[in-house]
């Protein structure tokens, strides 16, 4: 059965194996998945994935956010599928063929999540990138359009903000997985860093998030394990309340 801590994905956004291992030791019992992203993967390669798998029960989310021609994405995904990770990511901003190629390469061995609109992106950014006013005024519309492409291509789910997740679940159903970064607990002051479309852990889960990605509020806390535990308590209250 899924417990409150299983909702938490902790990103190992650190530049060395040693720093990653220290956080894994500290947080293994308090999170559901560790996310290996670009910063760590370019230094360690797949070794860190194997290390996490051998060191405890937390799963691995290999977040490499692919965005390339379909053949390249498909072949890269074949390699990811061999690593035994739970989820991986591909951007949704390209053509449907790229997403279909990702799903084909994954061959059911890893859940492919489409990254809709990064939570660091605001309406202003969307306008500056040349998108029409409709999307700049309401980023949820762009998220929904990209979610539709991901859904049609056979992706397992998407990455979106906690602000959009209820609309995504309503349109595509409960089984279409929604992973939400941009999470800021109230005790963290909902800090204004590079995240633009933020929600609290409780809001995200109440809105229907299957997993929340939460890094700096845990990593920068005086006691990261206690911070993760506090977030799990907040999630437990949200799912039981
Ligand atoms: O909680 P914090 O802001 O530190 O989380 C940062 C992490 O969230 C990074 O690993 C980044 O890759 C991830 N992220 C994501 N998708 C987004 C935005 C951020 O996976 N749309």
Overview of this protein structure:
With 241 residues, this protein is α/β, with parallel strands linked by helices. It has a single domain, classed as Aldolase class I (TIM Barrel, Alpha-Beta Barrel), CATH 3.20.20. It is built from 12 helices and 8 strands. Helix 4 (70-81) packs parallel to helix 5 (96-106). The chain starts with 7 loop residues before the first strand and ends with a helix. The model has no long low-confidence stretch (mean pLDDT 94). The structure holds cytidine-5'-monophosphate. Residues 11, 13, 35, 37, 63, 118-120, 159, 181-183, 195, 213-216 line the site of cytidine-5'-monophosphate.
Short summary:
With 241 residues, the protein is an alpha/beta fold. The protein has one domain (4-233): TIM Barrel, CATH 3.20.20. Helix content is 46%, strand content 15%.
Q: What order do the helices and strands come in, and which of them pair?
A:
Blueprint: E1 8-11, H1 17-27, E2 33-36, H2 38-44, H3 47-55, E3 59-66, H4 70-81, E4 87-91, H5 96-106, E5 111-115, H6 123-128, H7 133-137, H8 139-153, E6 157-159, H9 165-172, E7 177-180, H10 201-207, E8 211-213, H11 216-219, H12 224-240
Parallel strand pairs: 1-2, 1-8, 2-3, 3-4, 4-5, 5-6, 6-7, 7-8
Helix pairs in contact: 4-5, 5-8, 10-12
The chain binds cytidine-5'-monophosphate.
Cytidine-5'-monophosphate binds at residues 11, 13, 35, 37, 63, 118-120, 159, 181-183, 195, 213-216.
